[in-house]
## 1
Amino acid sequence: MTSSFLLLAGLTVVVALALLLWPLLRQPGGSAINAQAADLRRRLETLKQAHNDGLIDDADLESRRQQLSTQLLELVDQPGALPSRSNAAKVTAVLLALIVPPATLGVYKLIGEPRALSFTADARPSATGPGPSTQPGQDAPDLAAAADKLRERLDADPEDIEGWLLLARTYRELANFAEARDAYKRVLDSRPEDLEVTVEYAESLGLASNPRSLLGEPARLLDQVLSQDPQNQRALWLAGFARTQGGEYQQALDLWEPLLAIMSDPQARDALSGQINIARAQLGMDPLPETSLAAVAAMQGSASVDTSAAGASASGGIDVEISLDPQLAAKAGPADTLFVFAKAESGPPMPLAVQRLSAAALPLKIRLDDSMGMVEGMVLSKFPRIKVEARISRSGNAQAQAGDLQGSSGGLDNPTSGPIQVVIDQEL
């Protein structure tokens, strides 16, 4: 058996023992401690169900389960002045602690399959053995169904704030912005000091509005976050967009240009510099000089700003050049929204990467990479065949609607040998 398996198995036994021993060892009358233990057990079940539904991955489950286990064990050891348990209860607890671990190991050796946890050649199924072949994405979770299940559980247990946050982020990935807004509001009402949740709520509030706008309450919330954390990168990014929507391009630059200097991700810097250049163009200013971009990269420890296809491939990204067919140019307005999606050619329907831009910036070149995935673990670099779609939406809705303009690259090998060309040449 691998050491990681032994660690995981040991942790599971510890959690099981803690749950068994707690009623025996707890101090009588400790109602407050009882309530905390019940809350920890409920949160553990919520995490397990979320993992089963595909909403969180194995690593996230294990990290959070270990945190809950630590908290639970602290409760078991919590000192107090309450009367002690009977000797019979203590003897039972000791017997359980001595019997359960070896009994668990014995049962596993009898009916388990240790080789299934090994990555050595003898543990792998034969290439000619039975069983259907699988392609990437075949086991991808149905996020909408998982969100519905989670919502049903939360309706029965509305005090599960972590569950509401998970639901809010799932709705956000599904582009169900109104439901995401409402779920984020529940979390924020319970955790008003959480700056990241405030930023996410502000974003969903703007995306759920009609027409979509970060002006008003979203901008107020973002400014509130920046007053407490002036270098919150997501808040700076969104607050800059709010300024551009209000025509305050200089104020947007005042937020974005300092942000460019502290961003460490090359792809994110490229995307931000593109938005900065759009704002500078509105003010009649020249684009950022290449020397300025190189200086920012050097401050972050990079030799240069890498825009090559090889650099994109190494970071799980692709370069995409998007243009609009001149015959459709009259049907696209400067206020329209441009969505760019990378998807698996065959597999899950949800995008592996997505960008939301202004159609007024066309033609343009952008980079899609693993950081833009909508579902953790389902990213560009994990799929050998992809396609890229670009859509101009008049309504600002990510879902395709009649009258939208669209183009597709068709199926492509991943990684690509050069920039992907996408021409928007169809009207839906």
## 2
Amino acid sequence: MIKFPRDFLWGAATSAYQVEGGNFNSDWCRWEKEAVKEECGAACRHYELYKKDFDLAKSLHHNAHRFSIEWSRIEPKEGRFSRKELKHYLDVILALRKRGIEPIVTLHHFTNPAWFAESGGWVEARSVDRFLRYCEFLTRVLARHVRYWITINEPTIYLSHAYIIGVWPPQEKSYPKAAAVEENLASAHIRAYRAMHKIYKGLGLGEPCIGIAQNVIAFVPYKRKLKNRFTAFLRDRVFNLGFIERIMRQGILPQKNMDFIGVNYYSRQLIELKEFGLGNLATDVCDNTRSEKNSLGWDIYPKGLYDVLMELKKFKLPIMITENGICTSRDNLRWKYIYDHLKNIHRAMKGGVSVTGYLYWSLLDNFEWDKGFGPRFGLIGVDRKTYKRTVKRSARKFAQVCKTGILKGG
């Protein structure tokens, strides 16, 4: 039997574009009409059904919920903020509070207002000021109801998929542009972090807890060959740690530009370097792995979460698991995935890592970006025709952990 702390945060996560529906002013909505086979459309209709979804979360004993605010709703045209949409998100937060669920608010989860994208997006230096304006506007209104904020979700995934691999809008394949985007995302977080703390202080409120959600991968060398170990080290430094270190070290000395680190963990890469070259160092993997996989072909590797958490311990910051989940049609595998990862989280906590919460991805079966509606990550199934919600058995097993803080035998 494994026991977690009494004040541990338990729950699940969503993002606006993937569940709300009707985000017509975003760059994704306009891009996907030409670029992907399956459009998001009404998604899960969470925009109108959020209270029912939160009732389900409450019935599953969640005490925290991570969601994102859609920037393109709040600022559909540059400099023009929507009071109607601001009230909607305030109502969302108050609905969570009413149910005793801690809101964890993400300000940027991959999507941008169309006007922002059309005028250069994150490549432009002025993107930082634009994002800061949006963050300050929201903070002044919502600060009294929100303690936990995530400024940017998975910055490394965003810049790699949009500006290096080129599978997400704006489908660029440019290392110079990717470098500019990374610089601007880092500056945007740092400036937002400082401005938001200043707003809380000016309002006479207690300090907020602000971080980013960083996607991390367990990079595991195949057969421990020197070339594979070197490649694993390099990818870990660049992909897992690079953005965090960029934020934490401004100038010569480290600075506190985060109050916690959000960790999004799903899988590992088993690395077998075929030949030396920039592309190989970045992408080569073992083709013969027989590991159990999710429906997208990602390796299931719970120990990797322990390894990553132990590595992040050096930053001496609290860590929240802001995403961890599996897409599968086998619901018993979903519960095993949760169970095994919770065991490894607890093991890391015994090793001195300060983990404050676990948020499963995702509360609902949703729109999985360029993969469409096929991958099913949800604790709650959503019928694509009727939008009926169905709580899965894995969700009820997880609910007992949320209720008691105790992880019993699998």
## 3
Amino acid sequence: MYIKNIVLNNFRNYSNQEIELNKNINIIYGNNAQGKTNIVEAIFLCSYRKVF
């Protein structure tokens, strides 16, 4: 399964965010407490429909 984009509306610390992803490789980086893990959690929730 390839994820082309993610739209986060009122999810954790994102009020409204759209993220375009590349089919080959994606690097999520940033300072502490910027929401990197929230993006991974959003992908997980969409894939498995449950909280880890």
## 4
Amino acid sequence: MLEPGNNDQLPPIPGKRYFTIGEVSDLCGVKPHVLRYWEQEFPQLKPVKRRGNRRYYQRQDVLIIRQIRSLLYEQGFTIGGARQRLTGEEAREDVNQSQQIVKQIRGELEEILKILRR
């Protein structure tokens, strides 16, 4: 996600379930209007909206915002480049999860086969 060197500059994320846009702004060093703009540009960023269209971000959203901030501000990516980078990382994570599930199922099936052969 975020490089450890960049993580030192930002405050730690508290152990809360939901964060307001103001709290996320402080945690990520990004102004609220920028966060609202990024919601339009990055499909991964979907805060929960409640009464009065108020946004509530979860911990995963804060981590994604910090990653977007790093890609744009420190690594020099464009919005489009950062979007592609995030999409590529999600695809790799999905493939890794799928491979792990297949290995687990295969192992369980082999155990069942051993039991049936007895």
